[in-house]
Amino acid sequence: MDFRKEDMLLYAVTDRSWVGDGTLSDQVEQAIRGGITLLQLREKTLCEKDFLQEAKKIKVLCDRNEIPLIINDNVSIAKEIDAAGVHVGQKDMEAGLVRSVLGPDKIIGVSARTVEQAILAEQSGADYLGVGAVFSTGTKRDTKNISFETLKEICQAVSIPVVAIGGITADNLDELQGSGVDGIAVVSAIFAQKDVKAASRELRQKAEKLVKYQI
Asked: How confident is the model at residue 20 (pLDDT cuts 50, 70, 90)?
């Protein structure tokens, strides 16, 4: 699957904490119908075997709807299921090594909190950056927020797409105007909502306005 900057617009990150009586696949399908442009499978509580099985099911769903599937951290699973790519943090495998494992046609995302980390990630072969947390977030309580100015500096320092992540909601998304981001990554703003499809649709509309505002 070819990498497109537009795929970064509404980047949904899974969390099975809010599945309830349904399934993660059900939630993902509703999110896709609502307008997400990319999905990252991030399931910290699953063992390797269960993660693999979940990844296979979600891959079928994403392929059917032409939504790129990014696997969080786990390069071997990304390779085994032929996912669109993988996202790694600063403490995970370096982007250049990920590229050597997955090949030239896969999408590699890297988390960055500083301009230095961002530049190094781009030089190492990252296709996009996930930058945050831009707001306080419940999914990573030990993560300190980065300032608007740092976010803006990172966007200006690199030529690859930048996705803001961390505590983003439909209510505070507009505060990112002027930062230069190419999209937003959200977890609870989609998957913790009672109506996942409607939440995704609202975020998609606001994300389009955000990115258009910055062009």
From this structure: confident
Q: Rounded distance, CA 128 to CA 158, Å?
A: 9
Q: What is the distance of C-alpha 88 from the center of its chain?
A: 11
- Express each pLDDT in 67-102 by its tens digit: 999 999 999 999 999 999 999 999 999 999 999 999
Question: What residues pair up with 186 in beta bridges, in sequence order?
Answer: 12
For residue 39, pLDDT over 70 is answered with yes
Rounded Cα distance, 106 and 152, in Å: 27
Residue with tokens 């996942």: 196
Active-site residue list: 42, 111, 140
Residue 213: what pLDDT? 76
Rounded CA separation 165/187 (Å): 9
Q: In angstroms, rounded to a whole number, what is the distance separating the alpha carbons of residues 115 and 134?
A: 14
Residues sharing a CB contact under 8 Å with residue 77, sequence separation 6 or more, in sequence order: 48, 51, 52, 55, 71, 83
Residue 156 in tokens: 């200006």
pTM of the model: 0.95
- Give yes or no for a cis peptide into 133 (omega within 30° of 0): yes
